[in-house]
Design goal:
- By secondary structure, the chain is α+β, with helices and mostly antiparallel strands.
- It has a single domain (25-112), classed as Winged helix-like DNA-binding domain superfamily/Winged helix DNA-binding domain (Arc Repressor Mutant, subunit A, Orthogonal Bundle), CATH 1.10.10.
- The protein is built from 6 helices and 5 strands.
- The chain has helices at residues 15-23, 28-35, 42-48, 54-66, 88-92, 94-112, and strands at 5-7, 10-12, 40-41, 70-75, 81-86.
- The longest helix has 19 residues, at 94-112.
- The protein is flat, with a radius of gyration of 16 Å.
Length: 121
């Protein structure tokens, strides 16, 4: 009998399927990548990912929080102040994201004869 893995009330056939479902979405990897660098507020994330709509940013942040990859901290001030940072689970994916960045840089360099100059940290 095939094993099933249950995470957040969803069934998965293997850990790879689970991991990919948690980070799938056009912008989730970018959000996780930037949150590795520092704590961000909503507007700051919009500035570093200018192509994302507010609706998609909100949706992805909620999903990442529900999956335990990011922490949302609300401060009781007016106007409301909300910050996002990575949980330990969110930090665990960072070595993979850094390697993806390096891979993309090498692809760019092979096509253009020079690296992007982007700091994959």
């Amino acid at each position: 009998m095939e094993e099933e893995y249950i995470f957040n009330n969803k069934k998965f056939s293997c850990p790879v399927e689970l991991a990919l479902s948690v980070i799938s979405g056009k912008w989730k990897i970018f959000i996780l990548y930037f949150l590795n660098q520092k704590t961000y507020r909503n507007g700051e994330l919009r500035k570093v990912i200018p192509q994302i709509t507010q609706k998609m940013l909100t949706q992805h942040l909620r999903e990442l929080e529900a999956d335990g990859l990011i922490l949302r901290t609300v401060y009781p001030v007016v106007p409301p102040k909300v910050e996002y940072n990575l949980t330990d689970q969110g930090k665990a994916i960072q070595p993979i994201l850094i390697e993806l960045c390096k891979f993309g840089d090498k692809l760019f360099e092979s096509a253009n004869g020079q690296p992007t100059g982007f700091d994959c940290k």
